[in-house]
Amino acid sequence: MQKMKLPKGENKAQTAIAIAKSFIGQPYKAGTLDALPNEQLVCNLRDFDCWTFVESVTAMTLTKYDEKPSYEKFNNHLKNLRYRKGKVNGYGSRIHYFKEWMIQTEDNNIAQEMTPLIGGEEANKDINFMTSHRSLYTKLQDNESFAAVEKAQKTINTYDFFYIPKSKVAKIESEIQDGDIIGITSGVEGLDFNHEGFAIKQNGRIHLLHASYDLKKVMITTEPLADYLNRIKKHSGITVLRLL
Fold it and tell me: Can you say how many angstroms the Cα of residue 135 is from the centroid of all Cα atoms in its chain?
């Protein structure tokens, strides 16, 4: 992969930012993981949604720190990030809630959640959007997949859920580092996150490097993260995940 030729940064976060910036201008595309009839690992580095962008950049970063980086190792990292315990076994084995993705990356010592350490508050929120809106998900019509997602929701809800309300993000910007993974929490009932991206500092403020649904490409927000959040009503705040 050409991206593997990019130089490493001082740490994994800086390496992730360099890789993420190399995708600026690539198109946004939703639903790429659901296009095939049977669940299998999809590796698409041409176009992204917000989550596949974060996931692909993270997998590529981890690959650069392998002793002998290869496309096969990149695929393995991608699989271990995307699927519960790294096992592909139907639609229900894929991680569908970003909160679970965060939990698994912490359990695997890939990243540390910083949110409770930098002023995060408890959300006190039950995550159940997918099973409560089954008709929105074609592949949830399968009972086995539905049961797997329902089980995952119950597990997620046993964990604490911290977030930084968007009204307080500007005050804690100094605690956010370049390359931190930013999860944007949702004000929608039953839903954990609306969006994800990477923190990047510009002109002394934290911006978001992300695959933008609105502008349909990978880009850096023109306004600081705090202003971006305040502009979009359904965004309630953020979580911060730091690569180790």
Answer: 24
Amino acid at 36: L
Q: For the chain, list the domains and their CATH numbers.
A: 2-243 (1.10.3670.10)
Angstrom distance (rounded) from CA 101 to CA 95 = 6
Residues 6+ apart with CB under 8 A from 42: 32, 33, 35, 36
CB neighbours of 186 closer than 8 A, spacing ≥ 6? 192, 193, 194, 234, 235, 236
What pTM was computed for the model? 0.96
Neighbours of 76 (CB within 10 A): 17
The residues pairing with 164 across neighbouring beta strands, listed in sequence order, are: 238
> Would you state the structure tokens that stand for residue 188, as one six-digit string?
């929608």
SS3 125: coil
Asked if the model's pLDDT at residue 9 lies above 90, the reply is no
What does 48-114 look like in DSSP terms, one character per residue?
A: B-HHHHHHHHHHHHHHHTSSS--HHHHHHHHHHHHBGGG---SGGGB--SHHHHHHHHHHTTSEEE-
Backbone angles phi, psi at 52, to 5 degrees: -65, -30
130 alpha carbon, distance to own chain's centre: 17
Residue 169: pLDDT over 90: yes
SS3 196: strand
CB 22 within 8 A of CB 15: no
Number of H helices, E strands in the chain: 7, 8
CB 201 within 8 A of CB 13: no
